[in-house]
Amino acid sequence: MVKLGFGFDQGLGLAVQYENINTFLGNDGMAADYILRENAVDEGIPFNWTIAGGIFVGWHNGTGLRLPLGLNMAFNAKWDAYLQLNPALDFDYGKKVIRTLLLIRLLVFVTVFNHHSCTRNS
């Protein structure tokens, strides 16, 4: 499944999701995450929780590792939104500093291609 989106992560920018990989390119940097686990919050509640692992590169302030923890809500068959908290370790360029961060990510996606819904002729 391929989804295109927009939102706020490394500044404002564009997002692409392919299967379990989320990528983001923003005006403050870029990020890539691999969704490790996704499950329903509870039966009858339209939210899924997610845990991912990822990296980020800031245009002016370092690179780092992150552990996105999030909620995903599908509005319909094509549209969904993510809200994530991203605990992160930031390794700053030129400084011998490692700092911890808690970043917020908000993304809205539209599904543009769903290979699961394609059928093959035999």
Account of the 3D structure:
- There is one protein chain.
- The protein has 122 residues and is an all-beta fold.
- It has strands spanning 2-9, 11-18, 21-26, 29-40, 47-58, 63-66, 69-74, 79-91, 98-113.
- Strands 1, 2, 3, 4, 5, 6, 7, 8 and 9 form a nine-stranded antiparallel sheet that branches.
- The two termini are 22 Å apart.
Largest sheet: 9 strands, antiparallel
Order of helices and strands: EEEEEEEEE
Relative strand content: over 45%
The overall average pLDDT, rounded, is 84
Radius of gyration, whole Å: 16 Å
Could you say what the CATH architecture is?
A: Beta Barrel
Give the terminus-to-terminus CA distance: 22 Å
Stretches where pLDDT is under 50 for at least 5 consecutive residues are none
Q: What is the fold-level CATH name, i.e. the topology?
A: Porin
Overall outline: globular
- How many β strands by DSSP? 9
CATH class: Mainly Beta
Tell me the count of domains. 1
